[in-house]
Amino acid sequence: MYNKILLPIDLNHKQSWDKALPTALNFCQTYNASLHIITVLPDFGLPLVGGFFPREYARRQKKAISGDLKDFVAEQVPRASRCSASWPTVRPTRPSCVSPKSSMLT
Fold it and tell me: Max CA-CA distance within the chain?
């Protein structure tokens, strides 16, 4: 039924994976599926944001998160499981706002 299971996690918050990881591993074992664990590295490329960080900060953060995610997989996922881990950079998007005309406050 399932070939690939995607598990998004926040490495800083155990509650983001505490219950989901055992369930995902169970699905992987039951359906012989592969597990793909993903975490997010914020994009520091915006001039407004990037100007507050040292020049190499984003590269160092990506390297650190890469190591942390590999450690997480080594500690939490059984070796027999088919698992991959990735950390895409997500660029912020413009938030969608409610138009003042359609606001429930007016």
Answer: 58
Q: Label residue 37 exposed, middle or buried (CB < 10 Å: 0-12, 13-18, 19+).
A: buried
Q: Which among 66, 88, 73, 90 is positioned nearest to 24, based on CA atoms?
A: 73
In eight-state DSSP terms, residue 101 is G
Encode the chain (106 residues) as per-residue pLDDT tens digits: 788 889 999 888 899 999 999 999 999 888 888 888 888 776 666 666 667 777 777 778 888 888 888 889 889 988 767 766 665 544 444 433 333 343 333 3
Copy the structure tokens of residue 96. Answer: 């969608």
Pairing of strands 34-38, 4-8: parallel
Q: ∠ CA 56-57-63 to the nearest 5 degrees?
A: 95
CB 51 within 8 A of CB 104: no
